[in-house]
Amino acid sequence: MHLRGATGGYFNFLVGLRIMGAKEIKIRIDPERCKGCMFCVMVCPKKVLDKDDKVNERGVQCVIVKAPEECIGCGLCAIMCPDCAIEIEKDQVLGDR
Length: 97
Ligand code: SF4
Ligand code: SF4
What we know:
Layout: E1 3-4, E2 14-20, E3 23-29, H1 39-43, E4 49-51, E5 63-65, H2 76-80, E6 86-92
Antiparallel strand pairs: 1-2, 2-3, 3-6, 4-5
The structure holds iron/sulfur cluster (SF4) (2 copies).
């Protein structure tokens, strides 16, 4: 599952989310920065990311979050991205969900 943000503006992100133990992991991909090189897809050990079927308004097949429930929060995708298009955020979850 992936959620696509509204187009345009700073908050134009593709966001994936999973709850891992007491941590909440958010994967944010900024399609304004993504150039579709797929380095992140190649390095992800859990096959969380994939190439979008569609071409965006910049003519790029951006990366999408295909399986957020598989993400272990290792951050390899964000480290490898040459355009700083990926942000991994791990928040402590307070209380039960
Ligand atoms: S590594 Fe960065 S620029 Fe390349 S496809 Fe992934 S998010 Fe896009
Ligand atoms: S943080 Fe690790 S497991 Fe999660 S999407 Fe990135 S490379 Fe894959």
